[in-house]
Write a structure and sequence with these properties.
It contains three helices and five strands. By secondary structure, the chain is α+β, with helices and mostly antiparallel strands. The chain has one domain: YaeB-like fold (2-Layer Sandwich).
């Protein structure tokens, strides 16, 4: 069965960071992103609070590390991956403020670029 799927687009810096993730972590995140492109949501994806609707974070515990990928579903026609990072556990489960600031800045630039 062929599913209707949206294009997956990447902010260049997010793709560069994602490529540094271990292969197994990248594969699991790619599956979650494929689900998003098909209009579904992976169990590892949850809405990011404070960034408006349609912004989700894939939170993956892989081996002894934690990886995060943030994507937006309501900017243009594509699913946009705006940030990827390895989470350091300074703040427990909460996404660090510095990472939220990067996401917020990239979302703003992307919206301006796609107008």
């Amino acid at each position: 069965m062929v599913r209707d799927s949206r294009q997956l687009s990447w902010v260049k810096a997010a793709r560069k960071e994602f490529e540094k993730f271990p292969l197994g972590a990248r594969r699991e995140i790619e599956i979650a992103l494929t689900l998003a492109a098909e209009g579904r949501k992976a169990d590892t994806a949850k809405p990011v609070k404070g960034l408006g609707s349609g912004v989700f974070e894939i939170a993956l515990a892989y081996r002894s590390d934690a990886y995060r990928v943030v994507y937006a579903v309501q900017i243009g026609e594509a699913i946009w991956v705006v940030h990827a990072f390895q989470k350091k556990s300074k703040t427990g489960l909460k996404t660090p403020k510095a990472e939220i600031n990067v996401i917020r800045t990239r979302l703003k630039r992307l919206k301006e670029m796609l107008r």
